[in-house]
Amino acid sequence: MDLAALHDEIVAHSGCGFEPCEKATRMVPGEGSPDAAVMFVGEAPGANEDRLGRPFVGRAGMLLEELLEAAGMRREDVWITNVVKARPPKNRDPRATEVAHCMPWLETEVELISPRVIVPLGRHALKHFAPAAKIAEVHGTLLHERLFPLYHPAAAMYNQSLRATLFDDARALGSVLR
Ligand code: URA
To answer: Hey, what's the torsion of the CAs at 51, 53, 56, 61, to 10 degrees?
Structure first.
């Protein structure tokens, strides 16, 4: 399996019976540089992502791009993906069974890209990589040598203090990588 085959498999996926995959307009594969040193992992596509078939292209995506800039990175140099590859109806939280259903794709992405640092965005993504960790305690720190959790950008959109923390953490991520 290479990244192109993985992309094709995800976009062609159907018939599994899981609600997000069955009801979404499009599947949303990860995207970015195959040589990325950093992989950002969100929760699941929202409405804009569902419409365009690309991750983080709505308001949370705009904030993510500002965070990348603060960390000294460009979107095209990193890998951006989600735990769940299809939009859950009405943006509800993905169910554990749906997360498990999509997990082999994320695991393949991690294997193929082999990033130096994985950045789980928010508690849902963090849960997969560090089940016992709490985002409020570990955000902005390097865990297990290659995890650097950040708050989810969507959580910071209406919360100024979280937004300031997120930018501080993004700058700290930039320092870890330099
Ligand atoms: N939020 C996510 O977690 N993922 C996206 O792709 C967009 C918004």
So the answer is: -50
Residue 35 tokens, joined: 């040589």
Sign of the four-CA dihedral 66, 71, 75, 80: negative
75 Cα to the center of ligand 1, angstroms: 15
Helix, strand, coil abundance in the chain, percent, nearest 5? 50, 10, 40
Structural domains of the chain, with CATH:
3-177 (3.40.470.10)
DSSP string covering 101-147: HHHHHHHHHHHHH--SEEEEBHHHHHHHH-TT--HHHHTTS-BTTTB
42 lines ligand 1 (CB under 6 A): yes
pTM exceeds 0.90, yes or no = yes
Q: Answer yes or no: are the C-beta atoms of 123 and 129 closer than 8 Å.
A: no
Bridge partners (DSSP) listed for residue 121 = 150
pLDDT in tens, 128-155: 999 999 999 999 999 999 999 999 999 9
The number of helix segments (H) and strand segments (E) in the chain equals: 9, 4
The CB of 56 under 6 Å from ligand 1? The reply is yes
Cβ partners under 8 Å of residue 163, min gap 6: 156, 157
- Token reading at 178: 């330099």
